[in-house]
Amino acid sequence: MSAEYSCLVVEDSPMMRQLLVFALSRVKHLRVTEADDGVDGLRKLAAGKFDIILTDINMPIMDGLKLVKRVRSDPTHKDTPIIVITTEGSQEDRQRAMQLGANAYITKPIQAPQVIAKVKELLKIEH
Amino acid sequence: MTEKKSRPPKRAESASSPSFEELRQQRTAFVSSFFKKGAEITDELVKENERLRGAARKLEAENAALRTQLKSDDAIREALKKIEALEREKDALLSQFSQAEAVTSTFTARYTEIEEELANLANVYVASYQLHSTLRLPAVVQHLRELLAQLVGARAHAVYVADEKRKQLVPVSCDGVDMDRVPRVQLADAAEPPKGGAAILERVFLTGVPHIEEGSLSEAGFDSPAACLPMRIEDRAVGVIAIFAVLPQKERFMAVDFELFKMLAAHAATALAGAMLYSHADGKLPGLEVFRDLEAPRSG
Q1: Does any domain span residue B5?
Q2: How far apart are the CA of A76 and the nearest CA of chain B, in angstroms?
Q3: Using beta carbons and an 8 Å cutoff, which residues of A are at the interface with B?
Q4: Do residue A112 and residue B249 have CB atoms under 8 angstroms apart?
Q5: Tell me, what's the ipTM?
Q6: In B152-235, which ranges are continuous DSSP H helix?
Q7: May I ask the CATH architecture of the domain A5-123?
Q8: Each residue of B163-220: pLDDT tens digit?
Q9: Domain map of chain A by residue range?
Q10: Rounded distance between C-alpha atoms, residue B52 and residue B21, angstroms
Q11: For residue range B241-273, what is the model confidence (pLDDT) as tens digits?
Q12: Is B146 in Cβ contact with A15 (below 8 Å)?
């Protein structure tokens, strides 16, 4: 069974990344690629096309906000849906991410059903 | 002489009897009248016949109408029977639909439950996997901090390790709070028994029974931690994990948190102790001689 959708997960914490990958494995026909930080994310984006991007905001080297800005200025990925992962306290970051072009946000601690629902919603997957 | 007197006179006889002409006229009149009467009767019979035919046609038409009416009534009765049968079928289908809906609803609820359980198991698996994925002490501590912050949603927490010589619980890591502010805990035989949050920490360490706030977490703090979890290796207490505050959106602990707490109580101590030993040995692993004294497994 080949994957119909591809997703890029950009998260510096191995634990969170693994958890996101586990959650996303529940979405059928979704191939997940992992990136350690914003720069690694850009590298992966340059190498292929993705249907959706999930990114943490607080990351070393290049944070999620910069990544969102870069993605939106890239003609190849300017329309790719982006979900940012934030903490409740960082409301400013969340607003900034949405202003920069993110499509949705998920608040930590993340719940797998919430992640799955948001990804399905943006990819317009019904089941 | 008498005979002559009784005989009527010849002239008088001819005068009283009708003449041939008269008879002929009478016969003609009679025949004419007879035929006229016959024609009239025939006309009347034809007319009567015509009338009777009309009446018969009318009766036939009425009869046909009645037959049609009868057929129509039969069709209505048939249609009513069909309607009744369809109504029964509809009721049966509605009943089946309701049953199917109930089953679907049950399955949906069960599916959601299973998805949640699966997500919880994934959380526990990821947490324990990460805790044991390294023997480097800073990495283990970092994973522990991440686990508490990212999975449990702890805003302020500390990890205490027991200093057996000084009979103290010493904070070795904290997040969301300055290390200076984290309460120190003197263990049992201190002159002054601890109070507030320190008392809870001490009790958890000594008894091995976790303290987990099951109600609202909004009032949690140093004096009443949201959760205190013993870190034990088999029966030996090694330290305590204290969660002093949680993220604002976390109103209370959920099922997955309790599972994580159980996992932490069982795994955090071994992960930390393993990393401490590894650090103490400067990252060297012992030789295979450590396996020499292992008892061979008994068969049967």
Answers
A1: no
A2: 32
A3: 13-16, 18-19, 22-23, 26, 87-89, 107-113
A4: no
A5: 0.79
A6: 196-207
A7: 3-Layer(aba) Sandwich (3.40)
A8: 888 788 899 999 888 888 888 888 766 566 777 778 899 889 988 899 998 888 888 8
A9: 5-123
A10: 45
A11: 999 999 887 888 988 888 889 888 889 999 999
A12: yes
Strands B168-175 and B154-163 come out as antiparallel
Cβ-based contacts of A107 with chain B (< 8 Å): 249
Residue B197 lies in a domain: yes
Which of B131, B154, B182 delimits the end of a domain? Answer: B131
For residue A15, which residues of chain B lie inside 8 Å, CB to CB?
A: 126-127, 130, 143, 146-147, 150-151
The CATH number assigned to the domain holding B256 equals 3.30.450.40
Cβ-defined contact of A87 to B152 (cutoff 8 Å): no
**How many whole angstroms separate alpha carbon B227 and alpha carbon B212?**
4
Q: In this complex, which of A13, A19, A107 lies closest to B249 when CB atoms are compared?
A: A107
Backbone angles phi, psi at B58, to 5 degrees: -60, -45
Answer for the pair B261, B245: CB distance below 8 angstroms, yes or no. Answer: no
Asked if A109 and B122 come within 8 Å (Cβ–Cβ), the reply is no
Tally the domains of chain B: 2
What residues in chain A have per-residue pLDDT under 50? Answer: none
DSSP state of B148: I
- Quote the tokens at residue A97: 């991410």
Domain membership of residue B87 as a residue range: 19-131
